[in-house]
What does this fold into?
Amino acid sequence: MEDLIKSIDKIVEGQVFKIVISNKKNKEEKYNKININLKENKTKQYYQVEKYTDKQVFHENIEIEDLNDYLLDYMENSYKQLTAWSENNTFDLKISKKGKVFLGKKNANNSNLVNKDHNKKKNYILEEGMIIEPLIDLGVFTKEGKVVKSKYDKYKQINRFVEIIDDEIKKNDYKELTILDFGCGKSYLTFILYYYFVEIKKINVKMIGLDLKEDVIKKCNEVAKRYKYDNLHFELGDINGYKYNNKVDMVITLHACDTATDYALYNAIKWNAKMIFSVPCCQHELNHQMKPENLNILTRYGIVQERVAALMTDAVRGNLLEAVGYKTQLLEFIDISHSPKNILIRASKGNVSKQKIEKSLDEVNKLMNEFNFNPTLYNLLKNDELI
It folds into this structure.
């Protein structure tokens, strides 16, 4: 005990800025590892603690003066290894099976780590260190839960999508949700969202993924079974004409091509879904129809017409969602340098004023009259007398 106290004192006196506690003494220990980083706000310095289980990360802050006792408690009772970094030294503390304490110290220039750790770190919902099977299978995480360097952009994109959903979810205390994912494809995002809802938010969800490819659906159901995601299953079907007679709380569409997005939005509206998250793709419909009355400059150059048509398509969709009672935002999903398909439509059922509904619909009608096009979503809603 005395040797351990002296060793921890030496480490703390070294003004360390980063500590990793690992190597559990027994399997029953809740946390796989503990990271401790020196942080600074406007008034003081403190240590931020990240404690990792297989599926979650727990955070807490501790005062500088409490670090000795904090480390002693964990190293005496629960762990066998501690590594710490100061600007000029690296410390390695190990405890043998017989309880003997070994402290190594070597000179090292850790200034690059100082700079890295004192920069403001982005706190992701799906944090590095979590064991998230879909991210491992996707090749974004290693088996140890570390981000693969070449997949860091993909990691950020996935977190961005989850963050956009989380912003909406945390507005209410949801206990259960029914979620439909149209055009799910290989469904890695569906699996990741299921993990987010069940393991992080602790919400009882029923998720259904829909796609046209039979082999994809079969494989996805097998993977869901392997992950033991009991309330996630996949069905073969077309977005246009899919029937579901029970309550639907959320509809997700990621890169549903061209008018497939319109049919997905239409179904979501018909189901009176509370939330809609849609990343459109391949907006060709209006591009083929555009014949402006006065603004010919926008169709003179093919590339300009294509981009303007895509933006108009999503602007019309946003307005039509407003017109049927959804508070709607068009957000940047990912940086345009990574993908031009970077708009996400987020809509939530709410109290939309009559004035706003009328204005949204009027803007759509004026745009349609100027460019002589007929959007699919507009026609579907009009035929059902929803607008």
User: Anything to note?
Assistant: Residues 140 and 150 are 8 Å apart (CA to CA).
